[in-house]
Structures are given as structure tokens and as C-alpha cells.
Amino acid sequence: MLNGPFGVGKTTAAQALCAAIPDAMLYDPEIVGTALRSFTAGILPPEEQTDDFQDIALWPTLTVQIAEQLMRQYRRHLIVPMTIAHPGYFATITSGLRALTDHFAHVCLLAPLDTIQARLRQRGDDGGSWGWQRTITYLPRLAEPRFAQHVQTEDRSPQQVADDVLRVIGLTRG
After folding, report:
1. 12 with 6: CB under 8 angstroms?
2. Rounded CA gap, 67 and 78, in Å?
């Protein structure tokens, strides 16, 4: 599982890890959240009607259940990039994923805020987006020990970040 703020390089690093780890596949829980947002439009209770699909009660458990089905059906290692700073959701998802495999690892990618904001600008974000605002809030939280192991992405190529992640989780390339 690759955690970290928006714009830190999770998806790019995840793609490099998929290339480096035999029988790996990318699993993005954001797609689960987007689908849930669509499925539940107009029926959510007030506490789930936020601007964050992670607040939909089904999202954490469904994220784990889909991971389980993907692993069972395709017998592949999952590389799971997601930004998750809410301690309860983080605990539910990491404990659920940990129960699925003996090879679970969580790594949180970090970089200084100005670096992340420059990357977001390169994507066309002018500073007013939801992700931009969440990054400002989430970056200090994600630096906390509960989200360790941390890997820095500043001045690192995607390949270097992937190599660092492989070292942290006790694997070597190829």
C-alpha cells in the first residue's frame, strides 16, 4: 500500500513497482469510491454526505473486500496507491489488507509542500482544487509515526522511489 498526499507520486511509483514485482497489479480504491458515490447518489444519510467518498460507510470495507476478490481471482500481488489520512479508515483498511496476506506493507510517500504543489501545478491544478486543499491538511498528518514507513520523493525519480520502497519492504528488484 502506497499512501501519501495528492501529488506526491503514488501512482507513478505504483506503476514502477508493478513493473518490478512479478505478478503484481495496480488496485486503485479511488475507483471504488467513485463508483460508490454514483451508486449512493441521493440516498446517503447526512453524516455520509461530504465532499469525500471515504466518508461513505461502505468504502473502507468494500475496498478490502474487492482487494480480497482481486487477490483470490487473479493470484497477484496488489499495489494499492491511495491517500488516506483518517485514522479510523486507515486502521480498517490496513488491518483488513494485512489479514489477506503475509506480505502486506504500508509505505507513505512524502515531499515538502512546495514540491507537491509544483507537481500539482504541472497537472494543471491552479491551487483551488479539492486535492490541493487536502494536501495542505493531510501532509502534516501523514508525516506522523502512525503512517510510517516514510519514503521521500523530492529530487527522486520514480524508479529511485520504487527502489526505496522495495528496500523498505524487504524486496530487491527483479
Report:
1. no
2. 8
Residue 134, class by beta-carbon neighbours within 10 Å (0-12 exposed, 13-18 middle, 19+ buried)? middle
Cβ atoms of residues 27 and 80 within 8 Å:
yes
Task: Name the pTM for this structure.
Answer: 0.94
**CA–CA distance, 57 with 55 (Å, rounded to integer):** 6
Cell numbers given for 58: 461502505
Question: Which residue matches cell numbers 513497482?
Answer: 17
CB 151 within 8 A of CB 168: yes
pLDDT in tens, 58-101: 999 999 999 999 999 999 999 999 999 999 999 999 999 999 99
Instruction: Report the 10 Å Cβ neighbour count for 96.
Output: 17
Q: Looking up cell 475507483, which residue turns up?
A: 31
| Distance from C-alpha of 9 to C-alpha of 3, rounded to nearest angstrom | 10
Of 165, 131, 158, 112, residue with least CA distance to 11? 158
Q: Are 111 and 142 in contact (CB under 8 A)?
A: no
Q: Are 133 and 34 within 8 A, CB to CB? A: no
**Which H or E run contains 78?**
strand 77-79
